[in-house]
Design a protein that fits this description.
With 275 residues, the protein is of the alpha/beta class. It is built from 5 helices and 12 strands. A 6-stranded mixed β-sheet has the order 1-12-2-3-4-5. It has a 6-stranded mixed β-sheet with strand order 6-7-8-9-11-10.
Length: 275
């Protein structure tokens, strides 16, 4: 009887600790640094920093103060390029303008670029992006980013479940020697690329997963596997010749809880190598 009581108390203490940590973790903010190296990265872009920030879900559990802290933290990293990975709000059009009033304070000398997520009110977000002076919407578009006499290609496509994916808009007019970055909200698009050979996309940038939001020591019950049966949760993945970076994002859905999935700004450092 005493042993049973002890076991019950231990389980209760453990569950209470997990719940307490889950309540606290959304207020944290990590900077996750990842290095991607390639001989296709022009030497002029060596050590270029790309900030990937996604899943703000502003207005549900993320308020002005929290979003402002994120913007300030991103700017502190001195990124050269910023990619915004979608889900700025959670379906609430009335919060879009407030969200972008903060996001327009981001700074990056080589540009700030945005795609949509599955929870974004599409027309309202695109209209708001078109009115900003410093954020470029790249949904189903591609742009050349130039530095000195060199360039890399950056493009975006629509969300896997709520948008269309026109990859050709990014990859047309590029050669296999060009370094190409593709942003899409849901990392489960990754298997759609030709990862068995050298495709025209070298680096993919995604969010959507929240790192699982509730990540029970690697078990992520709220995430779906991709078509190749792989699970892309958080961090760097390499398949064949291609790489994918998934960020934990900033906000939460359903409940203001996270466990082992701290809100995150991801900084990707591009490194030129000769191999």
């Amino acid at each position: 009887m005493i042993k049973t009581k002890h076991v019950f108390l231990i389980i209760l203490l453990l569950l209470t600790s997990i719940l307490a940590y889950s309540v606290i973790q959304p207020s944290m903010l990590d900077v996750n640094e990842i290095t991607v190296s390639s001989n296709q990265i022009p030497i002029e872009f060596n050590n270029t920093k790309v900030a990937l920030v996604a899943d703000f879900h502003y207005g549900t559990f993320v308020d002005q103060s929290r979003l402002q802290s994120v913007v300030e933290k991103v700017n502190e990293q001195n990124p050269d390029i910023i990619v915004l990975g979608g889900d700025y709000v959670t379906d609430d059009e009335s919060k879009v303008d407030e969200c972008f009033n903060q996001l327009t304070n981001l700074k990056a000398p080589l540009g700030i670029y945005a795609i949509l997520g599955n929870n974004d009110p599409k027309s309202k977000v695109i209209d708001t992006l078109d009115k900003t002076d410093n954020i470029n919407y790249i949904g189903n578009k591609g742009v050349w980013i130039q530095k000195n006499n060199a360039q890399i290609r950056l493009g975006g496509i629509g969300d896997l479940s709520t948008g269309t994916q026109n990859l050709k808009a990014t990859t047309e007019n590029v050669s296999t020697s060009d370094f190409v970055i593709l942003a899409y909200h849901n990392p489960n698009y990754f298997p759609n690329l030709d990862n068995t050979n050298k495709s025209t996309v070298d680096l993919s940038l995604s969010g959507h997963t929240h790192g699982g939001q509730i990540n029970l020591f690697g078990y992520t019950p709220f995430l779906q596997k991709a078509s190749n049966n792989n699970m892309y949760v958080s961090g760097l993945y390499t398949e064949g010749q291609n790489s994918l970076v998934v960020t934990n994002g900033i906000g939460e859905v359903k409940a203001p809880l996270r466990f082992m999935a701290t809100p995150q700004i991801t900084i990707i450092k591009l490194v030129h190598n000769d191999n």
